[in-house]
Amino acid sequence: MCPQPADTWRRARVRRSLAVWGVAAAAALAISGCEALPTPSPTPSASPDYTSTYEPPAPTELAPLRGTTVEAGSLAHASVAAKIDNHWDARPQLGLERTDIVFEELVEGGITRYVAVWHSDIPEELGPIRSIRPMDPDIASPFGGIIFYAGGQPQFVSMMRSTPVYNAIHGQGDTAAYMYRAGDRSAPHNVIVKAREFLATQPDIAAPKQQFAYSLDAASSTAAKEGSPTGTLQLAFSNGFRPAWGYDAASGRYLRFQDGAPDLDSSGAQLSATNVVTVRVPITHGTGVPKTELLGSGEAWVTTGGGTVHGSWHKAAATDAITLLGDDGIVLRLGAGNTWVELVPLEGSVEIIPPAA
Fold it and tell me: What sign has the CA pseudo-torsion 128, 129, 130, 135?
């Protein structure tokens, strides 16, 4: 729309006023002898130096006897094994709840004893310890390290001394300051070991090698993913010794029972395991006592994370670890955590019971 005459007149008047103001301003500057200054630009300031607060995590490695993740170098010490008594008068034992691996074996009289192995968590004290048996060299040799025991028949002690394991024997000069008889227990079920103190005297003994293959956790183990659901594992070493393991879904672990009741540690808590490895083994008596024959192969089951998978065990030499294979020939992976190895005689039995409906 075209501007009206009144609008045109007002716009012309504004233009004349602005022109007059510009002439006056220029004249004022000329009189003062000053020139118009440009508007100053802001002066940039230097940025402060950047300091990162990120701290890289410490390097890690796998605990060789548990498969758990630990700080690199934190387990650069020997493992400690011990021949642990399982007589009724020896219970509750000291330190079993802190083991990495426990082997349960048949001895004379139809009872069992343990070869217990610690590395990730060395207790101040462990025991009570008892005498060595002819199968113990084959059990202990793969770990190297130290083994505590309370003597034994000379032929068995000689066999144990021939292994790559430091023999720490009750009654010897090198152990006198580190073993004692507890006053609250009856002999011979009362020899206790100051394990951590003795380990400190042997800083040059190497750490053990990895024994089993591991997955990240129980849920990703071979047994949990591929095995049959298992609520209870019932074992028979003899007519009188029938330990059992029951699955605790809340913790994802198996709880140990003995003599029909919970098997308790020295604090009153029930012993438990991430993995229960059951192997069927022949028993010979050529040495005058039962000997578990561990060189060879046989039937095996691995129970982890609520499931059990069937397979086989293999061990060619005393210093070899036990290899566990599935029925398909693939290595069985345990869950990261502690393990009990049940050396069940061929004359005994293994019963795998599914969870209650």
Answer: positive
Handedness of CA 267, 195, 131, 117 (dihedral sign): positive
Q: Look up the pTM and report it.
A: 0.85
φ, ψ at 336 (rounded to 5°): -60, 125
Q: CA 163, 165, 167 angle in degrees (round to 5)?
A: 100
Are 234 and 254 within 8 A, CB to CB?
Answer: no
Q: Which long-range contacts (CB under 8 A, 24 or more apart) does 168-175 make?
A: 168/193, 168/198, 170/129, 175/148
Farthest CA pair distance, the chain? 134
72 and 63 Cβ atoms separated by less than 8 Å = no
Q: How confident is the model at residue 126 (pLDDT cuts 50, 70, 90)?
A: very high
Query: pLDDT tens for residues 323-341?
Result: 999 999 999 999 999 999 9
Structure tokens belonging to residue 155: 């032929």
Q: Please check whether residue 214 is in contact with residue 325, taking contact to mean a CB–CB distance below 8 angstroms.
A: no
